[in-house]
């Protein structure tokens, strides 16, 4: 970083002091991660704004790394944040640091400074793009109540009485096939429909296996609090034609989700937060929510015109997100007909059919060209029907006696 920026951050930047962290612990902020040494005490010169602090305990004997944990925090100018490491829990301590202890650290800042690593300023511009719509309030609203975002959410254990015992189907309850046949013979009045109904009640192997699994639930306050994707895609009392319309154009579902936020652009902030909790926090739950939001936004028609600003920032956001996406998630994406790729095709097609114009259309065109150039994604033939959307032609033949 240049000298002017360094001087400014020394005066205005935030400081995060992390005491008692064992050597070789994985520690990071935003998109950067390191293994700590024995002199590590935290990070200095943190640019004011939202940041993601994360860490993973490392086993001394085997070098095994625990699932990643972390938290979002909005650092104000000159903020001095102090946290302690809990050796017993191998996690950040939940105990609050007294104001007296914090003041002593501030007074000793000259000696503490050499144990603080500077913020990796080279990632700052990209980080601002990835978090452009995440306000401090939104981050708090969507993060777990306990404040810690975990790759593996802790689940409640079950008592022995609550453990599942499995289920039995009617075929299991009968002694054998011959006995079943005998029972059928003794019931001549049973109609074929009744027999079919009995067979329909039989439990499948998958149902039996699922019934043996414990129904574990996350510890209260440990899960992300994302906006729920609407299950009903259409308003109550919709006609069959209206139901079909709302399944093809999911603007109604998007409206329901936007209504749960303080402003429309917060839905993009939620998309950004879900992505970062997957990319940095290693949470597959957050990846699934990110994917669901992308699919929903790509499945809208009317909303593109009503919420132009939302879709403008959607393009800006997903473009940089795809650039940062791990290669494993992008490999052979077209060959495997990845759902994100298919939905982006639908989105581009809808944009053209809806006659989107102006700056938004320019952004969509540029985004499509960049994807084709960088990732070799094929977006040709958008004016033609997809293979699975084409009408099926059935030839009717007359019976010949």
In short:
By secondary structure, this protein is an alpha+beta fold. α12 packs antiparallel against α13, α12 packs parallel to α15 and α13 packs parallel to α17. About 10% of the residues have low confidence.
Written account of the structure:
With 401 residues, this protein is of the alpha+beta class. The chain folds into three domains: 3-130, Substrate Binding Domain Of DNAk, Chain A, domain 1 (Sandwich), CATH 2.60.34; 165-212, no CATH class; 240-383, Serine Threonine Protein Phosphatase 5, Tetratricopeptide repeat (Alpha Horseshoe). Helix content is 43%, strand content 12%. The chain contains 18 helices and ten strands. The strands form two sheets. A five-stranded mixed β-sheet has the order 8-7-1-4-9. Strands 3-2-5-6-10 form a five-stranded antiparallel β-sheet. Strand 7 and strand 8 form a beta hairpin. The protein is globular and about 70 Å long. The termini are far apart. The model is unreliable at 169-176, 178-188, 192-200 and 390-394 (pLDDT under 50).
- Kindly estimate the percentage of residues that lie in beta strands according to DSSP: 5-15%
The biggest sheet, with number of strands, parallel, antiparallel or mixed sense and barrel status, is: 5 strands, mixed
Q: Which stretches are low in confidence, meaning pLDDT under 50 for 5 or more residues running?
A: 169-176, 178-188, 192-200, 390-394
Across the major sheet, the strand order is 8-7-1-4-9
Please report the number of helical segments. Answer: 18
What sequence of helices (H) and strands (E) makes up the elements? HEEEEEEEEHHEHHEHHHHHHHHHHHHH
CATH class division of the largest domain:
Mainly Alpha
CATH topology assignment of the largest domain: Serine Threonine Protein Phosphatase 5, Tetratricopeptide repeat
Share of residues in helices: 40-55%
What overall geometry do the principal axes of the alpha carbons give?
Answer: globular
Structural class: alpha+beta
> What is the total tally of β strands?
10
Tell me the distance between the termini.
Answer: 89 Å
Mean pLDDT across every amino acid position: 83
